[in-house]
Amino acid sequence: MKRWPRALLAEFVGTLAIVFVAAGVPSGPTVADRLAAAVAYGLAVTVAVDTLGGLSGGYFNPAALLAHWVQRRIGLLRLIGYTLAQLLGSLGAAWLLQWAQPESFWRRTALGSPALGSEITRAQAMVIEAVLAFLVVLPYAFSRRVRGWAVGGAVIAGVLLAAPWTGGALNPARAFGPQLLSHHWQNFGVWWIGPLGGGALAGWLGSLRQPPTAVG
Predict the structure, then answer these.
(1) Quick one: residue 72, left, alpha or beta (phi over 0 = left, psi -120 to 50 = alpha)?
(2) 3-state secondary structure at position 57
């Protein structure tokens, strides 16, 4: 239990940094805009996982936590504690963006909240988020030591594909803080049900490959 304060702080700080970057670089309509948003998000994830992963496991995503819980590699207490730290980090990032940006800008972008494309249904959006979150979580489900480049690369690929349709959150914590502070709750379930479903599936597949080892 001595590591808990450091681990919770790492999950909070890492998620704050990731959401601050991902939400602070809004994805525009052009390919160049989407590429910039995807690379910024992916690099932020890479740095956070590689620098803070030794303290907490480098999750920064409730879907990744769920994968390890499905595999019984973490217990329920850690699942809940880390998720709360991540959501608080997301809220802190949104607050910093709200403070640092002109009100006219952050209201127009809803603090970088993800949004659905005009020609896509909620069900379709959930499937897209689930499949791409599955790709992001695979390194957690199949590796004992997660590499930042693997997770960050999956994030870049996922955002490039999903940005026009779902905003490419791939992580409930990425959506939570900006949506809460901007009161942009429309279709919010897409960014919870989709990524968590993808994370659970990745965890289940990983459990077929290796025996469970509960770590609390």
Answers:
(1) left
(2) coil
**Burial category of 112 from C-beta neighbours within 10 Å (exposed 0-12, middle 13-18, buried 19 and up):** buried
Instruction: Give which of 58, 50, 171, 194 is closest to 112, Cα–Cα.
Output: 171
The structural domains of the chain, ordered by start, are 4-209 (1.20.1080.10)
Give the CA count within 13 Å in the CB-facing half-sphere of 31.
0
Residue 136 · residue 155 · CB < 8 Å: yes
Please provide the distance, in angstroms rounded to a whole number, between the alpha carbons at the two ends of the chain: 10
Alpha helices (H) in 57-145, listed in sequence order: 62-70, 76-100, 103-109, 122-142
Q: How far apart are CA 169 and CA 178, in angstroms?
A: 11
Cβ-based neighbours of 78, under 8 Å, separated by 6 or more: 65, 215, 216
Token pair, residue 21, equals: 């970057």
Question: Do 114 and 166 touch, CB atoms closer than 8 A?
Answer: yes
Length of the chain: 216
pLDDT at 20: 97
The continuous run of DSSP H or E covering 12 comes out as: helix 4-24
User: Using one digit for the tens of pLDDT, what is the confidence trace for 84-107?
Assistant: 999 999 999 999 999 999 898 889
Contact of 132 with 161, CB cutoff 8 Å: yes
**Which residues of the chain register pLDDT less than 50?**
1
Q: pLDDT at position 213, please? A: 54
pTM for the model stands at 0.93
